[in-house]
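Might I ask for a little of your time on a matter of protein folding? What I wish to show you is a protein chain and, alongside it, a tokenised description of its three-dimensional fold. I should value your view on which stretches of the chain appear to form regular backbone elements. You will find the record immediately after this paragraph:
***
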Amino acid sequence: MGKILMVAPTSFFSDYGCHVRIYEEIKFLQKNGFKVVVYAYKKGGEAPGVEIRRIPSIPGDSRYELGASWIKVAFDALLALKVLAASLKEKFDLVHAHLHEGALIGFLASRILKVPLVFDFQGSLTDEMIQHGILKPGGLLFRFMWNVENLIDHLPDAIITSSFHGAKLLKENFGCNPQRVFTIPDCVNVEAFRPRTPADEEEIKALKTSLGIPDDRPVVAYIGLLSSYQGIDLLLNAASILLKNGTKAHFLIMGFPSEAQYRAMAEALGIGQNVTFTGKIPYFQAPRYLRLGDLAVAPKLSASEGNGKLLVYMATGLPVVAFDRPINREYLGDLGIYATPGDPYSLAEAIDRALRNLPEIRGIGESLRLRAVENYRWEKAGEMLLQVYRKVWSS
């Protein structure tokens, strides 16, 4: 069918967010006869059946390659050299780029190859830099980076967003041509991520025992990156508030890379015995761990990025507490249990309200599962992606 040059300026494959989207897109394309070659950073795990070509390591640098960071400028320069070298030697039929850095690199490659560029937009570059604390709004550097972002947004032949909110942002804030913006929501493997059944009870009991999770308390589950950007500080503060008010619960926090930092924070808050940190959970093991939960929480702060963890929660049949953001309402609709963005007291109150009504809200989890099956299967997203490819090839 064709050969795709995929630019992924990140430590692909890692067990979170945009990496899952990249992986599932590739697997769908492969099933439909495409050859996909991914260009990514040095670090990251293997993705079964995916060809990944990596940049060399930078001597002396051991920092983890995720989130917004100025060190990524060096990584991106190496990535650009590798991608452009391949563009001069090999034939590709389309460039599919992820993140703004990838779109800029991908634009140069697409011009060399004389093929279309599709940009997989994950959220605002400047908003991400602000959330990570490396950029302050309003200053000269902010205005420079906003102009860079604006320039990149106008380079592709088509832009794919993971949410209608993202599409609106591109059209209204950055003036992108609506004819070039397509929304393909993040999706979920609804066969792998499923509600627990009576047949799972023995495995669930064994997992709880191995993790030290008590049987007599409802489990509040989180899975994803551990960072202030993802709201983990707010989650632990909310847990402290409601536990000290007498609510019985156990918090299962699954993810990386700052496990030791947040474990220490939980101890300092006096809730260490009520929180289990698992560290990194491989994507392919995540379904069985999520089935330990009675309630899921998604305290992510960004107003522009997608929030793919909501979909695995939904597919698992878990009621979800999240901040009241447009992207969260897009996925959860009126079935979400919402808190005021950035407010740990509101988050604590929402979790407490849900825990006190678990028998009643289990029906919400079932409805969220149905919503995921009907609207967010990867097969549906894959067909939409092929439609975008056909459109740019024909224009």
In short: DSSP finds 15 helices and 13 strands in the chain.
